[in-house]
Amino acid sequence: GAGVSQSPSNKVTEKGKDVELRCDPISGHTALYWYRQSLGQGLEFLIYFQGNSAPDKSGLPSDRFSAERTGGSVSTLTIQRTQQEDSAVYLCASSLEGTSTDTQYFGPGTRLTVL
Amino acid sequence: GNSVTQMEGPVTLSEEAFLTINCTYTATGYPSLFWYVQYPGEGLQLLLKATKADDKGSNKGFEATYRKETTSFHLEKGSVQVSDSAVYFCSSNAGGTSYGKLTFGQGTILTVHP
């Protein structure tokens, strides 16, 4: 079946612009996660959605970052007023139930470059 | 807090050599442990996992045993191939208040030469 998909695959933007990154999870997965992969910081958790519960936003680095998940499926990560330090690969993952034993399935990522 | 520490790389081996990549974790509870692999140009994919103490995860000739007494989850393979060249990430999911969050080690780059 189809895996996690993300769009765009690459995004180049100018400092100060807003960007939106999209994630389509695996159908039927109730949990959705966003991570960021950068050379300096490695793989970092950003935000986690589980069903209709309030999202866990504890990993968002600043209030310029926000995410929503509509209809329990597609998610959008928005970065406002982008900075050069936001340049990274943004990874989305989904899992069936969101438990600690669940396997998280990752998408191919969106490479964001802020000039 | 929760953390994962991997041995520093990069690791360079000849084909058919034995591989060990060390991984230790700290967690307040009893986390589930995972090894993810990222092949060149591809996304992260699960290699193996173990969800309780003394469990052994295995896949594609790789093995790792969940050792609670040493808080470790070392990755091993008896005979590596060129196709195993990739970046390997150890990770934990501590559950509890960190229910959905994977914490990753810094990654180990493995290069296998013919």
Q: Biggest protein-protein interface?
A: A-B, 27 and 26 residues
Which whole number gives the mean pLDDT of chain A? 93
Number of strands of chain A: 10
The residue fraction in helices of chain A comes out at under 10%
Task: Tell me the major beta sheet of chain A.
Answer: 6 strands, mixed
Judging from the principal axes of the Cα atoms, what is the shape of chain B? globular
Estimated helix fraction of chain B: under 10%
Tell me the quaternary state: heterodimer
Task: Give the overall average pLDDT of chain B.
Answer: 92
Rounded to an integer in angstroms, the radius of gyration calculated over CA atoms of chain A is 13 Å
Put simply, the count of helices of chain A is 0
Reading the helices and strands of chain B in chain order gives EEEEEEEEEEEE
Approximate strand percentage of chain B: over 45%
Helices and strands of chain A, in N-to-C order? EEEEEEEEEE
> In DSSP terms, counting alpha (H) and pi (I) runs of 4 or more, how many helices of chain B?
0
Number of strands of chain B: 12
Query: What would you call the structural class of chain A?
Result: mainly beta
Largest sheet report of chain B: 6 strands, mixed
The span between the termini of chain B is: 41 Å
Strand content of chain A: over 45%
How do you describe this structure in short?
The complex is a heterodimer of chains A (115) and B (114). With 115 residues, chain A is mainly β.
Which SSEs are present, and which pair or pack?
The complex is a heterodimer of chains A (115) and B (114).
Chain A: E1 5-7, E2 10-13, E3 19-24, E4 31-38, E5 42-50, E6 65-69, E7 75-79, E8 88-95, E9 105-106, E10 110-114
Parallel strand pairs in A: 2-10
Antiparallel strand pairs in A: 1-3, 3-7, 4-5, 4-8, 6-7, 8-9, 8-10
Chain B: E1 3-6, E2 11-14, E3 19-21, E4 23-26, E5 32-38, E6 44-50, E7 56-59, E8 62-65, E9 75-77, E10 86-95, E11 98-104, E12 108-113
